[in-house]
């Protein structure tokens, strides 16, 4: 055991012992426990699940995730792993992800760069945010065509980006941006900047913390004295439009009591009269079943049914900024656009992550990717915003449709969509067309220029139907062939004001 491990173990044992003593002194059955039974009996989660998803979210389609905290100081982990999990990789000497990562890689990096007596908690003081300008962030996100933003107010390391007294309880040292590092509130200016720019402003919040001294002790101390009051402080201070919960997977709701907390949110909090939106990560087993909109993470296929859902992922293989990633680890702009179109065609949203460096700047490659997406949406946004699933999401070519991008991987890189659209393996089918719809209009999104003609299968045009290529003036000629429509395209003109990331045919007045 090295010196850092020994110091950490002694500290944890002292805190654990003091917490057990405090817990043992409080043996009375309190109102807290009684409320759980009442909540279960009254169908608490059925009421929460019945809350409608706001129309703005269904229409928005594209949002920005921001992972930012002390892990942005080292901003390093093996390629194919989550850099924001640096503390876990360091202290547990374990790791998971793509490429069979070495469990000793992060401890080795820590020792070599910061010294063998250094600690993850040192990064709190080194996390300065000296170049943080949320107005610049908001301007960039608007240019990208995003409609909402979600910032990590607290990740699994427990560090809060706002001044919060619960962040240090039981730790006996400062662990929030108000007291160390930036020594100021980072959440408030973010909320103001996003809303001033016309963006919906959301906050991510991790229910659990890896190494909080109260988390693994028996009883409800962590939930009652840490999670719930901290969550309430966050909500009442900032009244976010979205609450993205995470870190729920260890326990069911008889431990987390998230149902009670959300009842408070909707009925008593400062946001009780607002159209606040929540996700589905509130207790073990709640994903895709309970809460608000459903979430997937580094996946490729959408959710079945019509419940609103969202894919969240980074541009590379991490949410936190990873200095170890190279250009080939980043998703190409064409793939990002096609991914967005594919998700929207299945009725989903894309929450695309950026990971600022510790000084608060968004890395240039991430800025460039966002601007590239925005330039495509400037021309083709009507095929994305405000649309809904059509009767089918895509039109396949001949061949095997059973793409397996996740085989042997923990996380699927964004370029998977290129294999499914323009660059298939031998014998594999491709998605020739992706569909979205809005009222009587159908949008046929083409991943590549089809040449002279394109056949749209199983579509019923009316006598009033008209077909146009977004970004190009004039209507296109077509003819019906049974249940299909053959559309004649003009010769491709490189001077057109369109992007080659994807081409959109607008088919109006479809029956």
Automatic annotation (TrEMBL):
Residues 44-382 form the Glycoside hydrolase family 29 N-terminal domain. The keyword Chloroplast does not apply. GO terms for biological process: fucose metabolic process; glycoside catabolic process. Keywords: Glycosidase, Hydrolase, Signal. Residues 431-507 form the Alpha-L-fucosidase C-terminal domain. One of its GO terms (cellular component) is lysosome. GO terms for molecular function: alpha-L-fucosidase activity. Its EC number is 3.2.1.51. The keyword Metal-binding does not apply. SMART domains: Alpha_L_fucos. It holds the Pfam family Fucosidase_C. It comes from the Bacteria. Residues 1-24 form the signal peptide. Alpha-L-fucosidase is responsible for hydrolyzing the alpha-1,6-linked fucose joined to the reducing-end N-acetylglucosamine of the carbohydrate moieties of glycoproteins. Belongs to the glycosyl hydrolase 29 family. This is alpha-L-fucosidase.
């Amino acid at each position: 055991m090295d010196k850092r491990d020994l110091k950490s173990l002694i500290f944890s044992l002292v805190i654990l012992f003091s917490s057990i003593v405090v817990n043992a002194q409080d043996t009375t059955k309190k109102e807290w426990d009684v409320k759980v039974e009442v909540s279960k009996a009254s169908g608490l989660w059925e009421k929460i699940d019945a809350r409608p998803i706001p129309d703005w979210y269904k229409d928005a389609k594209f949002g920005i995730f921001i992972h930012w905290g002390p892990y942005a100081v080292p901003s390093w982990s093996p390629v194919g792993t989550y850099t924001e999990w640096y503390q876990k990789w360091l202290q547990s000497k374990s790791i998971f992800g793509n490429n069979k990562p070495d469990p000793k890689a992060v401890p080795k990096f820590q020792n070599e760069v910061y010294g063998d007596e250094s600690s993850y908690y040192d990064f709190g003081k080194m996390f300065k945010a000296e170049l943080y300008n949320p107005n610049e962030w908001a301007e960039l996100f608007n240019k990208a065509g995003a409609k909402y933003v979600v910032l990590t107010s607290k990740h699994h390391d427990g560090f809060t980006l706002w001044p919060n007294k619960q962040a240090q309880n039981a730790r006996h040292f400062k662990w929030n941006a108000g007291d160390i590092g930036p020594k100021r509130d980072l959440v408030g200016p973010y909320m103001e900047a996003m809303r001033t720019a016309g963006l919906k402003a959301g906050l991510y919040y991790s229910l659990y913390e890896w190494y909080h001294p109260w988390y693994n002790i028996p009883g409800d101390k962590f939930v009652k004295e840490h999670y719930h009051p901290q969550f309430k402080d966050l909500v009442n201070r900032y009244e976010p439009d979205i609450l993205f919960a995470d870190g729920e997977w260890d326990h069911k709701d008889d431990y987390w009591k998230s149902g009670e907390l959300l009842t408070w949110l909707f009925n008593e909090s400062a946001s009780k009269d607002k159209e606040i939106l929540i996700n589905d990560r509130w207790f073990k087993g709640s994903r895709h079943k309970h809460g608000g909109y459903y979430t997937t993470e580094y996946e490729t296929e959408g959710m079945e049914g019509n419940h609103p859902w969202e894919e969240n992922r980074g541009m590379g293989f991490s949410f936190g900024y990873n200095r170890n990633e190279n250009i080939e680890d980043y998703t190409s702009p064409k793939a990002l656009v096609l991914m967005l179109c594919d998700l929207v065609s299945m009725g989903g949203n894309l929450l695309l992550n950026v990971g600022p460096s510790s000084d608060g700047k968004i890395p240039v490659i991430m800025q460039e990717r966002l601007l590239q997406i925005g330039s495509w949406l400037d021309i083709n946004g009507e095929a994305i915003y405000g649309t809904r699933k059509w009767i089918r999401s895509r039109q396949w070519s001949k061949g095997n449709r059973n793409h397996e991008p996740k085989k042997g991987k923990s996380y699927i890189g964004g370029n998977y969509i290129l294999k499914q659209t323009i660059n298939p393996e031998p014998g594999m089918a491709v998605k020739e067309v992706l569909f979205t719809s809005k009222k009587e209009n159908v949008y046929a999104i083409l991943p590549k220029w089809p040449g002279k003609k394109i056949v749209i299968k199983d579509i019923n045009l009316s006598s009033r139907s008209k077909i146009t290529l977004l970004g190009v003036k004039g209507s296109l000629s077509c003819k019906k062939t049974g249940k299909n429509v053959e559309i004649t395209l003009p010769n491709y003109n490189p001077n057109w004001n369109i992007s080659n990331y994807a081409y959109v045919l607008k088919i109006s007045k479809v029956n």
